[in-house]
Specification:
This protein has 198 residues and is an alpha+beta fold. It contains 6 helices and 8 strands. The strands form 2 sheets. Strands 1, 2, 3, 4, 5 and 6 form a 6-stranded mixed β-sheet that branches. Strand 7 and strand 8 form a beta hairpin. The longest helix is centred in the N-terminal third of the chain and has 14 residues. It is globular, with a radius of gyration of 23 Å. It starts with a helix and ends with a helix.
């Protein structure tokens, strides 16, 4: 009887393939880890890494929710050049437009391409009890496979972050500004958003 019971148990275990070797998983290169933004600096870190790893879910988590109260509701204020060139695109830009932009952004670059965003003349984050401001010049370089897209975007960013009721921080306002050098104007992120939104 014990012998038969042993054979039955062995058959079940062997049949379930419990002891077989499984294929190892690839290392996680998706940048999927989202750090809970318990302070404003972490919001900026999450924002930067979501661009680098092209992670839509983490990118959207950086912004105030659409269900937030009116004071915290996310708003994007484009650069002057973006607003004048694409007035209808930016007339009511919100979280859903960010989703559409980022999906389009991911679709036009190769998986191997890593967008590089460099902060230049970065200022210290100015904090108040329920709000914070991050300001910096930026240089965003993206090696698009399609040469019709400009590869470099320069400007100045101003992120206004709010402390939500749950104690976590998020971006409630994103201001984008042009940078002028030697009478030349560079494409700002606003232009990138408008190009990829259409």
């Amino acid at each position: 009887m014990r012998y038969i019971l042993f054979i039955i148990i062995f058959s079940i275990i062997y049949g379930c393939d419990v002891f077989s070797t499984r294929t190892p998983e690839n290392p996680d290169n998706s940048g999927a880890s989202f750090i809970p933004p318990t302070e404003p600096a972490i919001v900026v870190q999450n924002f930067e890494s979501s661009f680098k790893y092209k992670n839509l879910e983490n990118y959207l988590k950086c912004f105030s929710s659409t269900t937030a109260n009116l004071q915290n509701k996310y708003l994007f204020i484009p650069s002057q050049e973006g607003a004048s060139s694409y007035p209808t695109v930016f007339s009511s830009w919100s979280n859903e437009e960010e989703r559409r932009f980022f999906n389009s952004f991911k679709s036009v670059i190769n998986n191997e391409t890593v967008p590089l965003i460099n902060w230049i003349n970065k200022k210290s984050i100015v904090e108040a009890p329920d709000s914070a401001i991050f300001e910096s010049d930026y240089n965003l370089y993206i090696n698009f496979s399609d040469n019709s897209f400009p590869k470099q975007y320069k400007g100045k960013i101003r992120l206004v972050m709010m402390n939500d009721n749950n104690g976590l921080w998020s971006i409630s306002k994103w201001y984008d500004y042009n940078i002028y050098q030697s009478d030349s104007i560079f494409n700002s992120i606003s232009i990138l958003k408008a190009i990829l939104y259409n």
